[in-house]
Inverse folding.
């Protein structure tokens, strides 16, 4: 950020909110996400706040700067073929266990990197998700990695281990035991499942970057910048494809409620909404006037309207109070129920029926 504030070859900080907004607009034009813009402004705001404490700045112009509109990046899910291509690579035991566990449990990257062996119960065959690895400010002004409790009770969940997850975690535990014996006192025991070679926690950024490189090696849509969190999208998409109920998907993902699942992962679940019409077609597609049959209660004789054959317009007749849903309809307009059935006009109907398939009232 600092390198973008240069005047006549001399480093200068932003003097006005417009200077900050100009830089942020440049980042937005370069394709940076809204989150990256917000983080950039936060870093600059903290830097100027420290300069204010040292009397090197008179005001914090970053506090006044507004964020420009940025293109929101839509996440994607890996297909089953792409997952198999990724696992077909020559992977270490660590990466094979990490990818399989991520795809088959839907845990967040921080939850995976913070998973402890005490939370993996091989006897009961379950994983208890309780903590997440966070990057937090340190006392010396830098950052450090800490295990933090999950924010909500719904995020804390107990999941049954799929058989492949159980297998790769068993292998990984043996590898860690060998590393512990080999390094001796140099091994920093933290009890983490997905730790580094010396037992210390791994940084999320390093794992993300290597995962991206693995996706390119597997030739998985090289034009797409794959993110580590999209293994979670893959988990939810595959559950949805398998017909799992949205409420159960929300429980497995650790969401507060299913509304969060629908909002955040709606592009993974949208196809399931469109399948509703196909399901109705499969059940009732053979029931209609052309086949000579009708559902009980939906026969044309029970519809209280007639068609003006001269203008081919649908008119609603007076309906008794007991017939709900039709008595408030205006002349010349179809009821919502009729519109849902998509009443169409067709010639050649039997006598006593109008072109719309509705009997004429004479």
């Amino acid at each position: 950020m600092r390198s973008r504030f240069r005047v006549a070859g001399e480093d200068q900080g932003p003097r006005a909110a417009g200077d900050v907004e100009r830089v942020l607009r440049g980042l937005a034009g370069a394709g940076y996400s809204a989150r990256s813009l917000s983080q950039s402004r936060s870093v600059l705001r903290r830097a100027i706040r420290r300069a204010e404490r040292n009397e090197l700045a008179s005001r914090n112009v970053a506090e006044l700067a507004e964020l420009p509109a940025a293109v929101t990046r839509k996440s994607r899910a890996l297909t089953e073929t792409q997952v198999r291509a990724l696992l077909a690579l020559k992977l270490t035991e660590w990466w094979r266990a990490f990818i399989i566990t991520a795809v088959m449990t839907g845990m967040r990257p921080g939850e995976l990197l913070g998973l402890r062996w005490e939370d993996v119960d091989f006897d009961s065959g379950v994983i208890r998700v309780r903590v997440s690895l966070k990057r937090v400010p340190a006392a010396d002004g830098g950052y450090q990695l800490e295990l933090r409790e999950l924010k909500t009770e719904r995020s804390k969940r107990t999941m049954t281990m799929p058989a492949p997850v159980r297998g790769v975690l068993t292998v990984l535990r043996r590898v860690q035991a060998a590393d512990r014996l080999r390094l001796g006192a140099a091994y920093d025991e933290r009890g983490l499942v997905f730790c580094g070679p010396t037992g210390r926690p791994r940084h999320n950024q390093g794992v993300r970057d290597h995962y991206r490189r693995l996706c390119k090696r597997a030739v998985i849509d090289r034009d797409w910048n794959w993110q580590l969190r999209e293994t979670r999208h893959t988990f939810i998409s595959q559950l949805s494809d398998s017909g799992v109920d949205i409420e159960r998907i929300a429980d497995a993902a650790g969401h507060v409620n299913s509304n969060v699942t629908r909002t955040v992962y709606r592009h993974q679940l949208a196809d399931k909404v469109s399948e509703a019409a196909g399901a109705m077609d499969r059940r009732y597609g053979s029931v209609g006037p052309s086949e000579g049959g009708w559902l009980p209660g939906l026969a044309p004789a029970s519809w209280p309207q007639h068609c003006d054959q001269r203008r081919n317009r649908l008119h609603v007749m007076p309906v008794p109070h007991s017939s709900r849903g039709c008595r408030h309809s205006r002349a010349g307009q179809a009821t919502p129920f009729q519109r849902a059935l998509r009443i169409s006009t067709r010639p050649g109907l039997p006598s006593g029926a109008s072109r719309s398939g509705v009997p004429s009232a004479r």
